[in-house]
Amino acid sequence: IAATQPSTNWHLKENAREHHTSKFSSEELVVRRGQAFTITFNGAERPEQNLIFIAETGPKPSKSTRTLATFDISSTVSKEGWSAVLQSSSSNSVSISISSPHNAVIGRYRLSVQSGSSSPASLGTFVLLFNPWASGDDVFMPNKAECEEYVLEEFGIIFAGNKNHISGFGWNFGQFQGDILNICLAILDRSLYYRQDPITDVSHRHDPKYLGRVLSAMVNANDDQGVVLGNWSGKYEGGKNPSSWTGSGEILQSWKKSGYKPVKYGQCWVFAAVLTTVLRCLGIPTRTITNFSSAHDADGNLRVDEYYDADGNHLEKGADSVWNFHVWNESWFTRNDLGPSYSGWQILDATPQEQSGGIYQCGPASRHAIKEGEVDLDYDVTFVFAEVNADSMYWNLDSATGKKTLIFSKSTEIGASISTKAVGRDDRVDVTSDYKYEEGSAKERDIFKKARKKLGLEDKFDPTAPKVEEVEQKPDISGKFKVAGSLEVGKDLNLLLVLENLQSDAKTVNVNMTAWSTLYTRRRVNQIWKDSISVTLAPKEEKQFPIKIKYPEYQQQLTTDKTIQVTALCHVEGGMQVLVKRNITLDNPGIDIQVLGEAKVNKEVVVEVAFTNPIDAEVKDCVLQVEGSDLLQGILELRIPPLKASETSSTKFKLIPSEAGPKHLLVNFSCDKFADIKTFKMVNVIN
Fold it and tell me: Where is the active site (predicted)?
């Protein structure tokens, strides 16, 4: 054989169809482990002359690290290792069916063949991935519709906003586009784990929990020059505003093109979306999860402390915080390290919040372990448990004396409306009950106590808090903010402060109110408005106080997250303070997409996008960004002339779809007054 280099037919089409890899746009064979694929090569003498195949991966392949396999032709598929079964042979070519084990290391393999005593001849390379369709694989997912959604679907919906007002936006994961597979393999070879010990790292790449943890570290730039650099400052000079991205492809391509320099900038949903792309690409079923009122418990006491001054301003003190929402990932695989009941969905989080094992990585944390309060199990269960279960404590801090007074504590605030996209539909599914027992139920409190006990946080109330009697003092009044009217950027914000006297004697209340623009993490950016009133409430009386914040008052101060926090700190004469607060997320105006005519494979179709300026002023610097896997290559950017008040712009462009089926077109519109107005449209492409 060695005399002539054999030429290999990889049967790309047939193998890809069998292995659910047809969507990769690669000239190289991409197959899944634990399943046979067929190749034909010529230049072989009669195959009965003992052909030996060699499959190897990584820098120093060896049998002991399971990165090297040698196998000859056998009559049956091996249960344990690699095997080759003869399909057919003629005088000058031979067809072989090659199978890899269910627990093979994934990655790019070099395949060669040896005949008799001659030296091995290279047949070429192929890429081996996880196989959720094969029952022996750690990532096996019995439900085929879920495999389609969580491995093969390139479009997703990420939920955001806040728990009173959930919104969703589209994302193009694009795991099969262009060079993404090669970039995903490059990410593995740039991790700290690989740099420290490449041989051991590659030998662990059969294990989805190992790869999930490594990739949760590599998708953020901390520690390892990973893919995305986080920025939660509200200022995004020198990079792209995190809310302007519409897909992972542009981010992963930029990372590679720049010579692997971190891409600026990301926030939680960007990290989660990029991790989804990488894991789906490698064959691990993965989805994004949004947790509303998500706790970041920095000190691990399952409590989140928030501080306010006497005017009701939220103070940046302590490392704990509560985010309007936070997005992480769930990936599906077995946990042979923990036992069968902990298998299934595992939480991975690539947003750099806290270090784990000395670097910014998080998970895999078994979702079942979180629900059962098993905070001592690997990995990072305590942190994720707190994100959905921590108790919130609200304190008044006197900056002059440093005295803290507890205003109130709440155990049902954190971890609401945990959401993900439905399988096969563009709808929201609530998965809160998979993370915890019903709020307020005895079982939920028992699990919380169990978790505290495991962490050595004794059952009694925290000793740094005031005496228990003081904590249980009942407030004299209650309050809430109600929204009156629409919550839209460009419109005035109308609220009602509702105060109720709970006692049977009159109460005088001094109320200090503030409104701040914030990031979605509730970090304050600009003060928008403040006011104070003094009111007298008759016994059991409820009063409403209208508040109006005009668009010109908040327009300059608003962040691109479009979030405002209003607080009213009520000082009741002779009683305890009452804190009333509300986080408000404003909606952008809408944008409309129409597909003019039928979308057919390889035929031009025209799309029209319309936007109406809803405000009384001109908007300028208008840019439209369009992307969609299988609908257009890369990203289309269109500049749009300025729009006068109430004027509508209509922009037309052409698509040439490359594949049939339901595809999604994503549109992002920005101008000087509105940032990142997003929408998507399902386009059914026919042959």
Answer: 268, 326, 349
